[in-house]
Specification:
- The chain has 329 residues and is of the alpha+beta class.
- Helices cover 31% and strands 24% of the residues.
- It has nine helices and 15 strands.
- The chain is globular, with a radius of gyration of 21 Å.
- The two termini are 25 Å apart.
- The relative contact order is 0.15.
């Protein structure tokens, strides 16, 4: 059953600590009220607000925890957590929204919840795989999914050969741990490639060179996978003069219905990396979908506005079912 349509512009802005903006709907008969933790640095972010609203609409209790304020306590066979000095207990499921800038501590917090026996929607190992662009591509390519030709190297002596390995110029250069289009560049000459590589290597940054897929220049497809299905998809188009199609870089999104090959590739990519919720970015190649990146904490403001679908509700519905299945198993 597809997610229902919503009007995202009417989402309430949270102002109190956990005070509801409207009366909570009672849980369905036979369903106890659950506590759903959203790990997020800022409760005012669109995705966080939408998830909180979706939890309340289902009659459950949202709890937004700033990841960096979680204190992890360890003792023999007794992992515990406090938040601003208060013991964290009675959590039914965690939905992590871990930003790239706090990946290391965020992974520790997510792992700690797992140690405490709390189901987490996206395990720490899978989040870590998705954050490393090369590692994610290694998993995807090994599984037989089509990806742009990619090279990682530290050899400065033969840049021409590296470029040839990704089918020549122009070439895309990416930071291994960049996000939202940050650290993604295009080079049209060998001297540009050499300069960019030398600069990043001298700064101690890890980078990859990637094939430029000409037929998909300035656009890509973002599919949001929840569980074993795509709950929404859009084609993103870069603004004039920009080759990156990210919404955060001024790109525009248009809702699309994915064909079976694209939907199947997106779901398979999420499964391969081990994510329950994932934003999967694909290029439209001549032969079909080419997997570009996979995001473990995808923003969905642009997708909800483009599609009118209740993406937040689909995520929370899956989180509750996932928690039930984990506890039953």
């Amino acid at each position: 059953m597809p997610p229902r349509k919503v009007k995202p512009k009417k989402v309430p802005v949270l102002s109190g600590s956990q005070a509801p903006d409207r009366p909570e709907r009672a849980p369905r008969r036979g369903h106890a009220k659950k506590t759903v933790v959203i790990l997020s640095r800022k409760r005012a972010l669109y995705s966080t607000r939408r998830l909180v609203a979706a939890i309340r609409e289902r009659g459950h209790r949202p709890l937004v925890l700033d990841t960096l304020r979680c204190c992890l306590l360890l003792a023999q066979d007794a992992p515990r957590m406090t938040y601003r000095g208060v013991e964290v207990r009675g959590v039914d499921v965690v939905v992590p929204r871990i930003g790239a800038s706090i990946t290391a501590y965020g992974l520790a917090v997510v792992n700690h919840f797992e140690m405490m026996g709390v189901p987490v929607l996206n395990p720490p190992t899978s989040i870590a795989r998705s954050r490393d662009k090369l590692r994610a591509l290694q998993y995807l390519s090994r599984s037989g999914l089509d990806i742009p030709r990619t090279v990682m190297a530290h050899d400065r002596s033969n840049v021409r050969r590296l470029v040839e390995e990704v089918n020549g110029l122009p070439v895309i250069i990416k930071l291994i741990k960049g996000t939202q289009g940050v650290g993604v560049m295009i080079a049209h000459t060998l001297s540009e490639v050499q300069t960019i590589l030398d600069t990043f290597w001298d700064l101690g940054q890890e980078i990859v060179l990637q094939e430029f897929v000409a037929e998909s220049e300035g656009r890509d497809v973002r599919a949001l996978v929840v569980g074993d299905r795509v709950v929404g998809a859009m084609r993103r188009k870069a603004k004039s003069g920009e080759f990156r199609s990210n919404i955060h870089r001024g790109g525009e999104g248009q809702a699309i219905e994915l064909t079976a090959p694209y939907a199947e590739a997106a779901v398979r990519a999420a499964r391969v990396v081990g994510l329950e919720v994932a934003g999967v970015d694909m290029l439209e190649g001549h032969a079909g979908p080419r997997l570009m990146e996979i995001n473990s904490s995808p923003g969905f403001e642009g997708l909800e506005r483009a599609t009118g679908m209740d993406i937040a509700g689909a995520i929370i519905d899956h989180a509750l079912k996932y928690a039930e299945a984990k506890r039953a198993g």
